[in-house]
Specification:
Helix content: 25-40%
CATH architecture of the largest domain: 3-Layer(aba) Sandwich
Strand content: 15-25%
CATH superfamily of the largest domain: P-loop containing nucleotide triphosphate hydrolases
Number of domains: 3
Number of strands: 23
Oligomer: single chain
């Protein structure tokens, strides 16, 4: 499809491959992306041009980014193209009026509540740029209610993004996992009532269209060294994610030490070696409370000696997370269970085990006009200690356990702890505090694991005697005889130089 101005000159056309596929795709919801340099923003602009060209004044579109400042790139690109087809831009409203009456706006969704400002708005196209920057799909889901057209224009949502970011998990779960290679249409169906009192089945479809840097032949032609610069810009893993759109690789993650190969033990091996029923192991649990957001409960065992579990060498003092209960109804969405019901669920899951203690987020001990969450759970018989909630030192201790000693980790997870394994590797650094993780990500299992670890810290630092052996002792650390001997040596040294010595 060509987008023509009134002089019939071609001012933009899609490149063959994924870009053309996007413009021709009739599916309601499309996720387009994967690699850097795949032409994601350009493709979204082209999709709008095609849509507005076809439906004229009945086409109403809106571009969203997480933050307003992030829209500058796409706005700048539209200013290069749209005036050529007679479009007018309102800087104050951040809105284009196309020559045929179609309208395109630009806005941001920094917080989940920002989506509520668009209730009652009607759009035929919604574009979400860099969807993986959004920690939660909640605001995006709310926007779907704005997709409607009284003129009968087919409505749709177009999202773009790369691997990584605070929203990596929900984007991967929704678009990539069902069809890693892309182009497979996923349908969600439901039944709705009809006017005659019956029911009919309706469906919405979504699809993932992968884009790779090689698809952008225009970029390859105009900037032949681009791929070479990418290869020089980061680690091997990061480059793979950038070039190939590999969603299994998260470079720059907060816990770069985490490795499925090193830290994930098959549950069947845990049972085979006899540890599952070993009464000698110290067992305890940890808890991160959540209602609207997920809660996370983890059960841990600390090894009393060295073990060989399948191919894993597990040293004495290592922690193994052998069970989890992740209270979620969706991506980063809680079950809204009451504290007493959560307590009953915990006790049911650990029935028959000797659980020595439990540590929990100190926030559950706060009273707010009534009993605290901790008190409510204690009445049921599920007791807790206040966890050490220091964040930076807690993350450091967690890293120490992941690294372990002599190449052997001191923290493991059974493969049945699926949500822990799913969320921890993808957590990102806080952009304002690189020593902490981004709390807007799905960090509940990580917090719970931190509480557990801080109750059994494993410090890989030298003993004080080792650390300070090479440094002189302070007077306060000396015995009286050591002080006398030190002063004697000083007097001798001063005598040799002819200087006076004063005590």
């Amino acid at each position: 499809m060509h987008i023509n101005d009134y002089k019939q000159k071609v001012i933009w056309q899609p490149q063959p491959g994924s870009q053309t596929d996007l413009l021709e795709c009739p599916v309601f919801e499309v996720f387009f992306g994967g690699a850097r340099g795949g032409g994601k923003t350009e493709s979204s602009i082209g999709d709008w041009l095609a849509h507005s060209n076809k439906y004229g004044e009945n086409a109403i579109g809106i571009f969203f980014r997480r933050k307003l400042v992030q829209l500058s790139e796409v706005i700048a690109r539209t200013k290069q193209i749209f005036p050529k087809i007679g479009a007018r831009y309102n800087e104050q409203k951040k809105e284009w009026i196309m020559a045929n009456g179609a309208r395109l706006k630009f806005a941001y969704l920094e917080h989940d509540s920002d989506a509520e400002e668009y209730q009652g708005h009607n759009y035929t196209r919604i574009y979400i740029e860099e969807a993986t920057n959004f920690p939660s799909p909640v605001p995006i889901n709310k926007l779907r209610a704005c997709l409607r057209s009284g003129a009968g224009v087919p409505v749709g949502m177009r999202l773009t993004g790369n691997p990584g970011g605070a929203g990596h998990n929900w984007v991967k779960a929704r678009y990539i996992d069902p069809a890693p290679e892309g182009y497979k249409i996923i349908k969600e169906t439901t039944r709705i009532p009809t006017e005659d009192g019956g029911w009919k089945t309706v469906s919405l479809s979504r699809v993932f269209i992968p884009s790779k840097v090689g698809d952008n032949q225009l970029l390859m032609k105009n900037d032949p060294t681009y791929i070479l610069r990418l290869r020089q810009s980061g680690s091997e893993a990061l480059v793979r994610a950038w070039l190939e759109g590999d969603w299994s690789i998260i470079d720059g993650a907060f816990f770069s030490e985490f490795s499925e190969e090193k830290h994930i033990i098959p549950a069947i091996e845990w049972k085979k070696c006899g540890m599952a029923n070993n009464p000698q192991l110290l067992r305890f649990r940890a808890f991160d409370w959540g209602s609207a957001k997920p809660f996370s409960v983890g059960w841990y065992a600390m090894t009393d000696r060295d073990y060989e579990i399948g191919r894993f060498f597990v040293q004495k003092g290592a922690l193994v997370k052998y069970r989890e209960w992740y209270g979620a109804s969706g991506i980063n969405t809680g079950l809204k269970m009451t504290a007493d019901k959560v307590a009953e669920g915990i006790l049911n899951r650990e029935a028959g085990e000797r659980i020595r203690y439990g540590v929990a987020d100190p926030a559950i001990f706060i009273r707010d006009g009534g009993m605290s969450i901790a008190e409510t759970m204690a009445i049921v018989g599920c007791g807790w200690r206040r966890a050490d909630n220091r964040r930076q030192s807690g993350w450091e201790v967690m890293r120490q356990r992941l690294l372990g000693k002599e190449g052997h980790p001191m923290l493991f997870f059974l493969d049945c702890c699926e949500d822990t394994i799913r969320t921890i590797p993808t957590l990102q650094h806080d952009e304002h505090d690189m020593e902490d993780l981004d709390t807007e990500g799905e960090d509940h299992a990580a917090d719970e694991t931190r509480y557990a670890i801080m109750s059994r810290p494993h410090i890989l630092t030298p003993r004080p005697s080792q650390l300070y052996n090479n440094y002189p002792k302070l007077p306060s650390e000396m015995t009286i005889n050591e002080l006398i001997e030190r002063n004697r040596k000083k007097r001798l040294a001063m005598a040799d130089t002819g200087e006076d010595y004063m005590e």
